């Protein structure tokens, strides 16, 4: 119950203001079609640089929570998921809105997101310290394999092609080697003096996630805001009573979301779709699914928010993110000098627990503001793509520059962003590159340390491949790759 | 509109990984370049596999990129990269913001929309100035008053 000792830290004036702004901002960003939670968190990381670690993480956590829920607004009103996590919400949310029940659908969405989210945060609170203590047993070879595991997991799950995903991950690992070698101090791949400090993680994050999105918006011919439905009158109390009576849908959503969140790399999209599929199979109203069945929204939304907390469990303990957004959040931790592992719960206990507690409070804020903002979100949804693209570009430029006051970072950000846009056309994705870039230094430092130890013993290959823990992590890497191959083959056969 | 065959991308990826491999293997300190050597070897192997699988794949993908639509945006970015520090951030980004709003507008560009875009750009840039220069005290490159 250590988390209770730091609960009051959340309720300082500054933290509450940050939570409110993060939640409202996240809901609006989530509601805007095309702005994913990953991009929203990436875009905000430069702003947190000026804040204390505690405040920075509270802001990112609130945005992460709120964008996932906010994405349901456009999914229900426009049939456009605000985020990949809301794909399953479209299936019954839009038909409900079409049948004149848009407000009711939005009520279910935020109430279920809240219930699922709170369950997920409790899993985070009780699981993380246990796993963090286990991580203390890890030596350099284990940490090296854990970093590789993180990259392989994201590479296989966040990409259409396993080879392209793995290539992107390797590219990220290589990009991380630019600059000074952290063990020997040798300058590497500094083709131009602007690279002597290496690739700035924030510049890469913003560029890889924001700029391709802007280019896609501008390239898309149909960037006109769509029409949406007028909202009916519906009592919140009525929706609340109905929502909590749908126990089966809530359990299916929250449990599957929690389990999927714990699996590194899986993310909200899988959580939403799996729970939707499960509730459809066991529901007595099976024939109503796809035509506006509330259980479909309740299961999908409780699942994608239940995923948020557990997706941070492997991130905070091992540095392996549970979702692409958690991968970006790792960048937020690192810029404040906080490395995943047991240290987070000893040296940085106050900051870490305040952050985790703030996620719990963010769920309440998401519920309150979500229900209120869902009525106003139509204005954000109607923002034309050209204004959205212009605003993101300017925020990306200023945000990146503000971190180090270095114009080279802006050059790197724009170059990586434009390159990523072209690569994304052919199935390459940003998340493995970013994770490779973030986990690259961890992998390399531990590899170098392992080599120093191994040179006095049995050699690097034997050192890295001996012991039960090493073999377990290597097996997990292979399983994640084989799983990716299996999914790809299955997809090709279905096509 | 340009069409790019997947083969072009695969070859491009192979060339990039080979160049990075060359840079890694010709590094001055063998110890410091050991990790990059391993990574680039993996990259070359993966791009080689991509090339092999390309020929086994029955569906040859050709992607279209609407470069004419993106031309203005890319041009603005290039101008910013060369002149951003000289002309100042606020001047250049106001120009970028206005140009994106104006040239990518779905509505007809008439005097009314022009004025509307000028107002939107000014308001947005004022809020950016307030956020970065006043609140966060970020010193950005400037030119005269901007």
Helix and strand layout, with pairings?
The complex is a heterodimer of chains A (495) and B (146).
Chain A: H1 13-31, H2 37-48, H3 53-78, H4 87-98, H5 102-135, H6 140-157, H7 162-175, E1 179-180, E2 187-188, H8 201-219, H9 236-245, H10 247-262, H11 267-282, H12 294-306, H13 308-311, H14 313-318, H15 324-335, H16 349-376, H17 378-381, H18 385-404, H19 407-424, H20 430-455, H21 460-465, H22 468-494
Antiparallel strand pairs in A: 1-2
Helix pairs in contact in A: 1-3, 1-16, 2-3, 2-8, 2-15, 2-18, 3-4, 3-5, 3-15, 3-16, 4-5, 4-12, 5-9, 5-10, 5-12, 5-16, 6-7, 6-20, 6-22, 7-20, 8-18, 8-19, 8-20, 10-11, 10-12, 11-12, 15-20, 18-19
Chain B: E1 2-5, H1 6-25, H2 34-56, E2 62-65, H3 67-87, H4 89-103, H5 111-135
Antiparallel strand pairs in B: 1-2
Helix pairs in contact in B: 1-2, 3-4, 4-5
């Amino acid at each position: 119950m250590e988390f209770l000792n730091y609960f009051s830290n959340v309720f300082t004036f500054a933290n509450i203001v940050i939570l409110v702004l993060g939640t409202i901002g996240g809901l609006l960003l989530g509601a805007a079609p095309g702005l994913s939670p990953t991009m929203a968190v990436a875009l905000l990381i430069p702003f947190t640089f000026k804040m204390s670690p505690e405040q920075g993480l509270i802001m990112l956590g609130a945005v992460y929570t709120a964008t996932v829920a906010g994405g349901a607004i456009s999914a229900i009103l426009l049939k456009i998921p605000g985020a990949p996590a809301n794909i399953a919400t479209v299936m019954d949310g839009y038909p409900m809105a079409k049948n004149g029940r848009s407000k009711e659908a939005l009520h279910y969405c935020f109430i279920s997101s809240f219930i699922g989210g709170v369950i997920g945060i409790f899993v985070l609170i009780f699981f993380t310290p246990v796993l963090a203590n286990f991580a203390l047993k890890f030596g350099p070879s284990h940490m090296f394999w854990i970093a590789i595991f993180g990259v392989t997991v994201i590479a296989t799950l966040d990409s259409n092609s396993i080879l392209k995903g793995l290539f992107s991950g390797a590219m990220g690992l290589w990009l991380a080697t630019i600059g000074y070698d952290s063990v020997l101090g040798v300058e590497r791949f500094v083709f131009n003096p602007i690279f002597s400090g290496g690739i700035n993680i924030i510049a890469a994050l913003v560029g890889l996630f924001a700029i391709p999105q802007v280019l896609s918006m501008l390239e898309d011919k149909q960037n006109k805001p769509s029409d949406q439905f007028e909202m009916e009158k519906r009592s919140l109390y009525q929706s609340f009573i109905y929502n909590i009576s749908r126990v089966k849908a809530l359990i299916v959503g929250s449990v599957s979301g929690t389990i999927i969140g714990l699996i590194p790399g899986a993310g909200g999209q899988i959580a939403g779709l799996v729970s939707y599929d499960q509730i459809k199979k066991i529901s007595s109203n099976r024939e109503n699914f796809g035509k506006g069945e509330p259980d479909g929204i309740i299961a999908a939304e409780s699942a994608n928010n239940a995923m948020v907390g557990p997706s941070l469990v492997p991130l905070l303990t091992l540095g392996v993110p549970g979702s692409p957004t958690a991968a970006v959040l790792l960048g937020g931790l690192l810029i404040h000098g906080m490395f995943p592992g047991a240290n987070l719960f000893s040296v940085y206990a106050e900051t870490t627990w305040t952050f985790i507690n703030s996620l719990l409070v963010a769920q309440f804020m998401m519920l309150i503001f979500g229900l209120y903002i869902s009525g106003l979100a139509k204005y954000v949804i109607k923002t034309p793509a050209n204004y959205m693209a212009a605003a993101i570009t300017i925020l990306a430029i200023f945000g990146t520059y503000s971190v180090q006051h270095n114009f080279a970072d802006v050059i790197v950000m724009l170059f990586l962003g434009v390159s990523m846009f072209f690569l994304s056309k052919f199935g390459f994705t940003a998340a493995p590159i970013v994770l490779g870039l973030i986990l690259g230094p961890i992998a390399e430092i531990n590899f170098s340390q392992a080599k120093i130890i191994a040179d006095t013993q049995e050699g690097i290959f034997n050192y890295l491949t001996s012991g039960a823990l090493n073999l377990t992590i290597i097996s997990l890497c292979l399983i994640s790759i084989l799983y990716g191959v299996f999914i790809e083959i299955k997809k090709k056969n279905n096509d | 509109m340009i069409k790019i065959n997947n083969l072009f991308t695969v070859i491009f990826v192979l060339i990039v990984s080979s160049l990075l491999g060359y840079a890694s293997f010709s590094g001055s300190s063998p110890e410091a370049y050991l990790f990059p050597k391993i990574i680039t070897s993996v990259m070359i192997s993966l791009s080689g596999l991509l090339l092999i699988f390309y020929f086994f794949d029955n569906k040859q993908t050709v992607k279209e990129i609407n470069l004419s639509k993106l031309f203005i945006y890319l041009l603005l970015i290039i101008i910013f990269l060369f002149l951003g520090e000289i002309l100042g951030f606020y001047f250049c980004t106001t120009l970028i913001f206005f140009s994106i709003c104006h040239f990518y507008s779905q509505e007809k560009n008439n005097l009314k929309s022009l004025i509307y875009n000028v107002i939107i750009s000014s308001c947005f840039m004022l809020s950016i100035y307030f956020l970065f220069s006043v609140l966060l005290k970020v010193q950005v490159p400037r030119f005269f008053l901007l």
